[in-house]
Amino acid sequence: MDNAILTVNAGSSSIKFALFAAEAGLRRLAVGEMENIGAAPHLKIRAGGEIVLERRWPQDQALNHEALFAVILEWVEAHLGEARLIAAGHRIVHGGAVFTAPTRLDADVLARLAKLNMLAPLHEPHNLAAIQAVRALRPDLPQIGCFDTAFHHTMPEIATRFALPRSFHEAGVRRYGFHGISYEYIAGRLRDLAPRLAAGRVIAAHLGNGASLCAMAGGKSVESTMGFTALDGLVMGTRCGSIDGGVLLYLLQARGLTADAVSDLLYKQSGLLGVSGISADMRALLASPEPAAAQAVELFAYSAARHAGALAAALGGVEGLVFTAGIGEHAPEIRAAICARLGWLGAKLSPEANAANAPVISAEDSRIEIRVIPTDEEAMIARHCLTFCGPTGQGRNTPHPVV
To answer: What superfamily does domain 194-372 belong to in CATH?
Structure first.
């Protein structure tokens, strides 16, 4: 068996991972997920379409990331046999203004990343906990960090600014953009599938529980709906998206909410869940007969279309629209609702192609090309690892952008 690369996406209650053969084609060998961390952990690993390992732990068993990764790594190494794991690649939500490319993770880098925890409190600490766990268990295994913010460092300087005193910008209070690993993958796939479109002006819509839009010109980010944090922009599963700062002052001053309570409200109680009062899951809302569910769905589509209009202005026109991620790839109703509001841009769907989740869903007389492209953040992370630890990158220890 070939040597392999492990990719890791660690969250607060789950760890998603994949194992790839360390070869040019990056063949996927296995995928897995550890769910219900902190409650009753449940591990499931699939290889060749079959469940090859499933394990459950008792309710409330105290298992930290290191204990959980010990189980994962033991299975990986047993599965590889005589082959070896040559790298672990991690999705890291925030790279700040410094980490603008995939980076070899060492003690110094981890210390610098820990200072960014406050910028992504729901994600960054868990990303780093996974890295520390692997570091403790396999100290000699190279680990590579891939940052959701890195793709957006091509945004023009003016697009990164808030209209705050300059000292805040210099201290890092600026717009960063997120979902960059996904957008980087989409930009690459678009170059393969439609080179002329990839060279033009495209809005990519990463629509899932977390949702954002990215304006790309020639395959590079020039604007994003997410800003200083992953709270900004579109309505999301449990996040409210863009909100008047005066609302936050009102919650703090007039309603007496603490900063922690406001954080919980914005991150966990708002968005589709807050508006519907039913669910954060788009599938449940589409199936619900409740008026509040329909309103939440309409607000999601309205928010996406409104922000797409702003991104069209930033681009100076649009030739293409790409839908990706869970909702973007699998919810024809949402794509139709968004595109119906973008008719003024020339967007026109083929109802048949849209219903079939076809790769190209625009009508023949649509002025912009509309596509559905499945994203693959795991493959993007593995590709970056290969540049560090493959035949031409063994031992690389500096940030290295992959073109």
So the answer is: ATPase, nucleotide binding domain (3.30.420.40)
